[in-house]
Amino acid sequence: MSEQWQPRIVAFACRWCTYAGADLAGTSRKKYPPSVRVIRVPCSGRVNPSFVIRAFQRGADGVLVSGCHPGDCHYIEGNLYTRRRYSLAKRFLEYLGIEPGRFRVEWISAAEGDRFAELVTEMTEDIRQLGPNWKMREQA
Amino acid sequence: MSLKSYENALRDEVRDLLQEEKIRTFVGYEAGYRPESPVPVIIREAGRAEELVLDEFCGAGLTRYVLDESTRAGVGSDMPPIGVLARGCDGLGLARLIRDNRVAEDDLYVIGVRCRGVVDPDRARSVAGAAVLAAEIAEGEVVLTTARGEVRCAPQDCLMDKCLTCEDPVPEGAQVLLGDEGAPGAVGRRDFAGVAEIEALSPDERYRFWARQFERCLRCFACRNACPACSCVTCSLEDSDPEWLNRSTELSEQFMFHFTRAFHVAGRCVGCGECERVCPADIPLMLLNEKFMKDIGELFGVTDPHIPSAVEPLGKFDPEDPEGWRGEDERP
User: Fold this and answer.
1) Are B92 and B168 in contact (CB under 8 A)?
2) Alpha-carbon distance A78 to A3, whole Å?
3) DSSP secondary-structure letter at B32?
4) Whether A131 contacts chain B with CB within 8 A
5) CA distances from B141 to B114, B155, B160 (A)
6) pLDDT tens by residue, B205-264
7) B208 vs A97: CB contact, 8 Å cut-off?
8) β-bridge pairing B108-113 and B176-178
9) What is the DSSP letter of B307?
10) A–B interface: beta-carbon pairs under 8 A
11) Minimal CA separation from A6 to chain B, in Å
């Protein structure tokens, strides 16, 4: 490999909070690694856990699911279902052998541009330590 | 008394019900190729009631045959209900189908069995060291009859795993009940020991464990097809657009298949163990389902997630729910 490996993170970001937070990080000129690929979803509740497996299959080294803080959901309760679902999904992914640092769920509001930049930096460093993900990865 | 001694009562009951057109069909068991392997049968004529078998080996789940029968009739049919033989676990499976609006409660006529457990034919054979012709479950022991005589063994040595921790041996809402009252009860508790063993491994070891299991998967879909909780008319795993799952049996796809199947029944699994029983590749599927049961208990305080309820654990929330992805000490 001529190029050095860089972590690739797929972030499912809720359109109302986290996506706007990521936008704020950009417009505020916050520095964070170019490792993250943001996928905008209407609500964190839209993120089917199979999306996470698909991301790992197709080459993600880490996956982030992020939405509004509980109580702030644009759809009132979407993220409360997310909280239940991903409490289980996170544990289940680890049960299947995914390292804890590769999959995270975090609440980031539209005002938390700093937090978004911080989180991406933190995840990127964690995943750099873990190395490229080979688990559940599709054979080319 | 052995369950066998209720066989004639069952036949008489079913014959009468069919003759009087109180049921349109009956789902039960008939003799298989070997005495320890009775197989499911669907009978429609009163004259065939004689073919029914009832003994300690009748353990194949019957709920999905009921679903097929019910679907065939269509919605709002005015036919008499479907008769079905049900142990406690079948009863939970039927309740699952009713809760999921897949079968109407009044389209069922349940002949329940006060269950003392099902004898696993393979285990019985290896314990007895010979072909087993009959079995009887008594207090604290199981009596296996072979051509050379009787062999007595502990329930743990020859019953199906699910029976050892079963807390629901009698189906709810049965119209008729067969079998002795006062079942011996569970010999153990569902303590998720198998799940805890895997949790204790390192991430790489866990991955290798599951990769080894899933590599054997033939993708026959038997686990899905036998499951009372996995009965959608259209299955996402068969969609071609979007293609969630392709047709290859490559390991990555196997993970997608098993993750999706297990997640679909999370909080809805009745713990009947049919997926594992029908798996031709002996994949320990209940270790996936039980992981969810364990976590649902730990995180949401649902102690009996296997009993169908009006709203399942993943179909609701509590504003005070924990964030299960954080450890106790890292709550924000």
Assistant:
1) yes
2) 41
3) -
4) no
5) 17, 6, 14
6) 999 999 999 999 999 999 999 999 999 999 999 988 899 999 899 999 999 999 999 999
7) yes
8) parallel
9) S
10) 108
11) 21
- Residues of B with Cβ-Cβ distance to A53 under 8 angstroms: 255-256, 259-260
Q: How far is A78 from chain B (nearest CA, A)?
A: 10
Q: Write down the pTM of the prediction.
A: 0.94
ipTM: 0.96
A10 - beta bridge partners? A37, A63
Q: What is the largest CA-CA distance in chain A?
A: 49
Question: How far, CA to CA in Å, does B103 sit from each of A87, B27, B99?
Answer: 31, 15, 8
- State how far residue A24 is from chain B, nearest Cα, in angstroms: 23
| Strands (DSSP E) found in A9-58 | 9-14, 36-41
Q: Which amino acid makes up residue B312?
A: E
- Cis previous bond, B242, omega within 30: yes
Identify which of B179, B142, B135, B132 has the alpha carbon closest to the alpha carbon of residue B164.
Answer: B142
Alpha carbon distances (Å) from B139 to A29, B2, B36, B153, B184: 74, 12, 21, 11, 6
Question: Which of B208, B236, B317 would best serve as a mutation to test chain A binding (most A beta carbons within 10 A)?
Answer: B317
